Structures are given as structure tokens and as C-alpha cells.
Amino acid sequence: MASSNTSALSIPVFNGENYQVWAVKMKAYLRGLGLWQWVETKRQVQPLGNNPTLNQIRAQEEEEAKAPRALSYIHAAVLEPIFTRIMACETPKEAWDKLKEMYLGSDRTRQMQILNLKRQFEVLRMKDNEFIKEYVDRLMEIVNKIRLLGEDLTDQRVVEKVLVSLPERFESKVSSLEDSKDLTKISLAELVHAFQAQEQRRSMRQEESNEEAFLALQKRKASQGREKKQFGEKKDKEKNEAKEGKVVARRDILHVLTARNKVIQRIFVGEQGQQAQMAENQQQQEQLFIVTSHATSSCTETWLIDSGCTNHMTPELSCFKELDQSYKSKVKIGNGDLVDVKGKGVVAVETPTDDKTRMCWVFFMKQKSEVAGVFKNFKALVENQANSSIKVIRSDNGTEYTSDKFDRFCVEAGIVHQLTVTYSPQQNGVSERKNRTIMEMTRCLLFEKKMPKCFWAEAVNIVVYLLNRLPTKAVKNKTSFEAWYGVKPVVEHLKVFGSLCYTHVPDVKRDKLDYKAEMGIFLGYSSTSKGYRVFNLKTKKIMVSRDIKVDEAAVWNWEKNEIEVEDVDQLG
After folding, report:
1. Cα(167)–Cα(129) distance, rounded to whole angstroms?
2. Quick one: pLDDT at residue 301?
3. Are 376 and 438 in the same domain?
4. Is 264 in the same domain as 335?
5. Which UniProt keywords apply (predicted)?
6. What domain range includes position 530?
7. What are 341-366's pLDDT values in tens digits?
């Protein structure tokens, strides 16, 4: 009975593409017919014994017919051009292996296919205009192809991939899941359902706002229609008066607009220069949409937050750094009441984040693959200094940041890794501008003292050191160093990069008649000890010394290996 039901199903046909998918379907189809074992292994039918019964003879004939029947199903499941390649095969196993060899390839070929699919898996990112189900379908298509090739890819790894590749609009939901659930045990289906629920709520809010906008537009059109009708009636009246012999001066219309391009006043200017102002000075009221909550106790720190993030309101005068109390206005809030505005100013908001302080670190690596290890050390350093953990990082789409090792570390540490859109460096503008500033300052330092380019890393190091101790617009009246550490930086020890200097030779390393100092080039400040980094011109090595004398006016000639004397005429 099972065989008849299975044979009624349409046989999967292979057209030369997606062999792995067809192989899975065909395998299930043959299993339903009870023929797969004849394809999987080369079986031999046991011979009959002496004096067989009629049932034994029938069973023997049925077993002998299974191999030809399995071969016929394979023939029927492929198109004509493919059939010609397996028509010489005499057993179903031989035909199956032939197809597998032609379309799946050797072990080496499969490894290359797995590698390419893994690369697609790693670089895949959700698009901004894409739904979560569409993205997961694209992702699972790659995952299933990898699994069909025999590579194990766990559901947990797929969940991690989804979490680290979502766009910024899901960031709040990811943070909520991190706080409420164990992400190492959450299933992919549960994760998708959570994000779909968020998309549905957002879609409902958008539909409501669209309805409100449509109603407002219809109301505005109706108002404009009434205005045009009134204006047309007035023009007809003026024409009738002219026909009756009354003098009507030709007038131009001057519209007075607000910042939002709404007409609040019309002034008619006559030929003689007279002005007649119409009584259309309709006072326009700004509207403010707010989110409120009920509390059992009163609080003076209440803020009315504008939905456009342009104007906010507070009753506390002490919050303002600058306040213009001459500014007067009225604001209509959600319940229809009017709130008096008695001033407009600027408030100071402290945000304890690295993006706020503009504190910068620099690490030098031989290969980009070292990024994951360096970032792990950096995380331990800054979290210890700031006494808080890293929540979010943003980077470009470089392979060093999208590697499996880096993503796995971010997931394990609970860090949200945001990636900029391809060819959109402006999304990471703070870092991009910082990199440009560092490179421009590095170039200037090298050119100023005619330093060889081999010292570029030393120049970058001192540039970052100086930028952290220089004022920045991002931190008003503070340096990045002070904003990060809470103390003002010491600057008395600063020297000019690339200057000629003289390092003191300790007594234990010289005789009585030896030089007490050696010439070198000042390169910066040591990060591991309280000393200066100096390139020794004699030994050609970098050393750290506490006692140096710097000649900032001198320049070392690297071609002639001598001190360059400035031209006296040029100085005059």
C-alpha cells in the first residue's frame, strides 16, 4: 500500500542545477518505494535453496526486480541530456555515483564549495529595507547548502550570525533579548518571531501616522479651497465695482511666511505706496507630541520631549547653560492644552562614552588577522580604566572585523557589533575623521624634520599622544585625556618630534674618558615606562631614556649622516 501511494507522487526531476536539493528529494522518494538500499549499496540476491515454495519463488522474483526498478526511476528523474551520460550504467548504484561525481565533484571540489559558501555566510548582512523573514530565508538557503555538502553548521552559530548582522533599527530589541533571555539557548524560530513582532508593531504605528498625515493633508486642501473661493469672490466684486465707475488701484500681494512656510499675513501694496493690511493675522501655534507617564510623586526634572528632536521643554532654570528669556511663545501639547514658553537656551548633557570624550588609542600590527586578539586586550584595558563595559562598537566591513573569530568574541562578550553600509564611511564619521587627522599630522611631522618614512609608526604614536592632550570641540573646555581620566594632563615634558637630542650615558656603561652623552633622534614617549623614546644614531636602535637634552632647532641630515646647518641668509 505504501509503495502505491509513493508511486502516485510526482518524481523529482533533475535539470542539471541544484544537485544537492534534488539528491535529498530523490533519496526520500526511493526510500518511500523501498528501493534506496539497492542504490546505496551493491546488493546481491540470495539464491533459492532446494525445493523452494511458491512464496519463496515470488519473493525471489520481487527482490531481483528491485534493482532494475530503482534504475528506471533514476532514468525517469533526469532530463534527456543527463540521461545520455548514465545510460550505459547497469546498476542503480553505478548511475547514482556517476551523477554524484559529475555534479557534486571530488572531495577537494566540495571543500572549495564549502569555503565559498562560508565566505557568503560571513559577509551576508540584512538590508535596511528588508524584512527579517526575507533575510533569514536568504541566510538559511546558504546554511542548507553548506549542510548538504556534509559540513556541520549548528543552529546556535546561525542565531549568532543573525544577531550580529542586523541593522541598527533592531538594536533595542537585541539589547532587550540579551537582558531577558539566554542567547546561547534561544532557537532561531523564537528569535525570528520576536523580531517579526517588533516589525508588526512598527508597521502598525507607521500606518497610524500615515492616516493622520493623510487626514491633515485633506484638511489643509479643504482650507486652501475655501481661501481660493473667498479670494475669487473678492476679485469678482472688484471687477463689478470697476464696471460701475469706481476707481480700483492695481495691487500686488506680499505673503509673510513662517519658518514652516505657512501664510500668516497678507499685505496688499497699492500703486501710490499705500498699504492695506488684511485681518488675516491668524496666530499659528507650534505643536508638540509627547510621551507621558503617571507617577505617584511630583518631580521638577520633567521634560517635554519633541518628537522631531528639535525643541525640548523643562521647568528647571538651573539646567540651562545659556538662556534667552526674551523669547516668548506657546506650545500645544497632546491633550490640547497650551504651555507658555518663557525662554529658549542651551543645556549641557554629559554622556560617559568614548565617542563623547574622543579618547583615542593606537595599536600596530603586522597582519590584519591580529585584530581580534588586539581588540580583546583593548577591551580589558578600557573596561578596567573606565570601570564600565563596552556595549556597542562600530566598524567598516573589512575582513578583519567580519571574521568568524571576531564575531564570536563579540557575541561571547555581549557586544553589539555595528557595521557601516558598504561605501558609506560617513556612517562612522568620528573614526574616519580621526584617521584623516592622524595621517595629516603624521605627514607634517615627518616633513618638518625631514624624517625617513620608516619612522611613520613612531610619528603616528606621538600624534595620538598629542591629540589626546589637545582641546577638541567635542569636549568643551576639556581635553580628551581629562574627560577620560578626570585629571588635567601634564604638558611640561612635551618635545618636538624628530629633533636632535643627547641622551645621558649611565656611569656603569662608560669609562672616565668616554662621552657622557650620545646623539639620537627624539621619537616620542614610552607607554610602558616613564621615559623618552630615542633612536640612537650610533647603534641604530630605539632606546628609552629618562635624561635627554633636546635641540629642537637642529635637523639631522639622513643622507650625509651629519647635523644640517641652516642658511644664515635665509634666517636674515
Report:
1. 10
2. 45
3. yes
4. no
5. Hydrolase, Protease
6. 500-571
7. 878 775 443 322 356 788 888 888 87
